[in-house]
């Protein structure tokens, strides 16, 4: 299993991607799959989709850095092998067909040309079966751990490396932006969000950072007037505008539970005030904090209680 998970293991390209035939099939596929998962790409020179799929497969396999290998088999040059495998139940009547082997057995397969994102998911699922994971997943987990330990500079470097390798990785770009925010570089964080590829610009991770940046800007102004909001609420507990501004200030001070509670109190007092402004502000908090943040989880339960009581 160490062979799968050790990112430092040398992996010459010749080991990762090979052309196969009947003579090498047992060694390069069946026996090799007892160490690492092996993908077998059944293709043909006349197959249009194969011309798209094979390069994408090679790219994803190389990115896996030795955790998975690829063997390419031309069905026209290996009719005997194809016939033998078909008799074993493999659906090789059409190409491209990609079959995954693990521990000498067929683990999974797909037919047709999949986009790169789907190929990554296929390989990630295969690696989970084998007890491993893609290098990107390991790096993102390492970055998250650095954030939890307050080491935002290390997290920044890891997220930046992943984003450079995978420009459309929303989690990496969002993590990079949040690390920049934590280091006081909000302008750079905003630039990361604004320059995100069109494909992921509206991704939940990116939207969350955008909300966090907006809240940070609003919070700086609100913090300066914190005493004012508290005085207004002391004089009039139904001053909903002051309570919402107070929540924004508390959030800027990283007092998330208190910020959420202030908004829940405003909703409890008058849910419809100013077109449900308190509820909308709370949802903006949720987006900025992330769906699994403890403050989000707790406040969402409180909101549900108020809305469906």
Automatic annotation (TrEMBL):
Molecular functions per Gene Ontology: protein-disulfide reductase activity
Alphabetically ordered keywords of this record: Coiled coil, Disulfide bond, Electron transport, Redox-active center, Transport
Name of the protein this chain belongs to: Putative thioredoxin
Disulfide bond as UniProt keyword: yes
CDD domains referenced in this protein's UniProt entry, alphabetically: ybbN
All residue ranges annotated as the Thioredoxin domain in the record: 5-128
Species classification: Bacteria, Pseudomonadati, Pseudomonadota, Alphaproteobacteria, Acetobacterales
Coiled-coil residue windows: 212-270
SUPFAM superfamilies documented for this protein: Thioredoxin-like (SSF52833), TPR-like (SSF48452)
One Pfam match: TPR_20
CC annotations in GO: cytosol
The organism's place on the tree of life at top rank: Bacteria
An annotated GO BP: response to stress
